[in-house]
Specification:
The chain has about 140 residues and is mainly alpha-helical. It has helices at about 1-25, 50-60, 75-85, 90-95, 100-110, 115-120, 125-135.
Length: about 140
């Protein structure tokens, strides 16, 4: 029974981790997410997506619920994803899905390329996403306290 419970909890935790990883890359340019080698499946689109479309989709994914959006149109998030070397097919899936259900997006990417799914779930990507989100959620010039 514990194994079943752990499986049910693993996907939401992994999705949250993936989102936070992408945010952290905006502030640290030294930690590139290592992309594991894997063969992409024939499924998925190979078309190139615009940075603007990818930014909107990532913005919706990271700031689910519509309470916040990044003032840069998701440019920080796009930079993180590209630095992590997410394939064009993976990027296209994120844009095509354009949803806020992180688990569904990552599972869809996993069907296209397991390496891309691992990139989305990596701790480096999570930290990078966190940095982008912090830039939006924590106003600059405010003293902690």
């Amino acid at each position: 029974m514990t194994t079943l419970m752990m499986r049910k909890a693993a996907l939401p935790v992994a999705v949250l981790a993936a989102t936070e990883i992408v945010l952290a890359g905006c502030s640290s340019g030294t930690d590139d997410a290592a992309r594991p080698a894997s063969g992409p499946s024939p499924a998925g689109s190979s078309s190139t997506v615009s940075d603007q479309d990818l930014g909107k989709a990532l913005d919706k994914l990271v700031f689910s619920g519509g309470q916040h959006t990044s003032p840069d149109g998701g440019a920080c998030l796009v930079a993180v994803v590209k630095r992590a070397k997410l394939s064009e097919k993976g990027q296209a899936h994120i844009v095509d899905t354009s949803g806020d259900d992180r688990g569904a997006v990552i599972e869809g990417v996993r069907k296209i390329d397991t390496g891309d799914a691992e990139v989305l779930l990596s701790p480096q990507l999570r930290s990078s996403f966190d940095a982008c989100a912090d830039a939006v959620l924590i106003p600059t010039g405010t003293a902690g306290g």
